[in-house]
Specification:
The structure is a homodimer of 185-residue chains. Chain A is an all-alpha fold. Chain A has 9 helices and no strands. At the A-B interface, helix 6, helix 7, helix 8 and helix 9 of A face helix 6, helix 7, helix 8 and helix 9 of B. Chain A binds a DNA duplex (30 and 30 nucleotides) through helix 3.
Chain lengths: 185, 185
DNA sequence: AGATCTACTTACTTACTAGTAAGTATTATA
DNA sequence: TATAATACTTACTAGTAAGTAAGTAGATCT
């Protein structure tokens, strides 16, 4: 992949998670890269193509993450997972799923499909971590593993959004609460 | 207030929570009301004015809600609160806070301020419900009341967003998990 | 050396955005 | 009954959006 193509994806990712899908334009990207907007259209004919590429980039990143944390214990895996959102929140962004969910009815079907794949990968992984933790006794929680996984994802996702409004403190307390909840009593 | 002005707020509210703040225009509203876009500008000179009015409308609604549920028990109050999101999710919308949080960096400072007020009202109310529930023993949870309140708000808010991607089932399981968590063991 | 491919630029189109100035019909007020 | 306020319409502006057709400089292949 050319460096320009990679840069476009990186900038688009940043803009989507900072300002929302409908608030960024090819012009924003082209100005930042000192090229013309047609150059962006050369690499990604339509905005939807770019949107799909951004999600694919995230799928790659999460698959790499899953491999990286594989040797860790279940509580450590959860903590590493929450640390991703820590970074998102520190950089005053929100998570990709959150932004695109609120723009859902305005995004192309191809983007919707890719996002569903992304959420499925993350959801399945965290569910398996919950299952393992329950079996080994390293994690304690009520309800089934899938629901617990969804509860963690939704909480931390919205906590990053809430931090935009109420500041970092609200994020940190929610993050710690999720962690405490899972600890053995 | 004129019926047109009320209609504009209602339609804007619907569009914001269905498509996002940056994906709706005065033209969308004017077409639905069979008036010209200048008519919308007559009632709300700028889009920010309309945005502020929509949040004020929500503040009114939540203040009415708080009065309505005042005689109920704490578990009932929480359940009624979650039922609001049930309706949001059924109508394939998301909550106002969620959408505007993801668009935060693109919205006017006046809208940001009003949204902070709205979140503070809801947060303070749910915190007081948590405090009461803890004191009376009608609610069981770990951690402090404010954090628990934020955890409930973030979970249910993001669950409505997640439902857009993964369907109603994910919402229902998260909602039930929140309720189960608070029940006396 | 000529042809082709890559990564663009130039120059444009169509459509829509928020917003405004000036005019008008209807209703309320003094 | 004249005046003024209300709730619009008509007709426009300046700016920006996504997207495209045609051309070009430089590298790569044959």
């Amino acid at each position: 992949m050319t460096s320009t193509k990679e840069s476009i994806i990186n900038i688009a990712d940043d803009l989507i998670r900072r300002r929302g899908y409908n608030a960024f334009s090819y012009n924003d990207i082209s100005k930042m890269l000192f090229v013309k907007n047609a150059a962006i259209h050369y690499h990604f004919p339509s905005k939807s193509d770019l949107g799909v590429a951004v999600i694919e980039f995230h799928i790659q990143k999460v698959e790499h993450f899953i491999k990286r944390v594989a040797p860790l214990s279940e509580p450590e895996k959860v903590e590493e997972f929450l640390n991703i959102y820590d970074q998102i929140q520190t950089n005053k962004k929100v998570c990709l799923v959150g932004t695109l969910a609120t723009d859902w009815d305005t995004i192309d079907e191809k983007i919707q499909q890719k996002l569903t794949v992304f959420v499925t990968i993350v959801g399945d992984w965290l569910t398996s971590v919950m299952e393992e933790g329950l079996k080994k006794g390293t994690l304690t929680f009520k309800g089934d593993p899938r629901t617990r996984a969804m509860l963690i994802i939704t909480s931390i996702m919205a906590a990053a959004q809430m931090a935009k409004i109420m500041g970092s403190e609200s994020f940190k307390s929610v993050k710690n609460a999720i962690l405490n909840e899972l600890n053995r009593r």
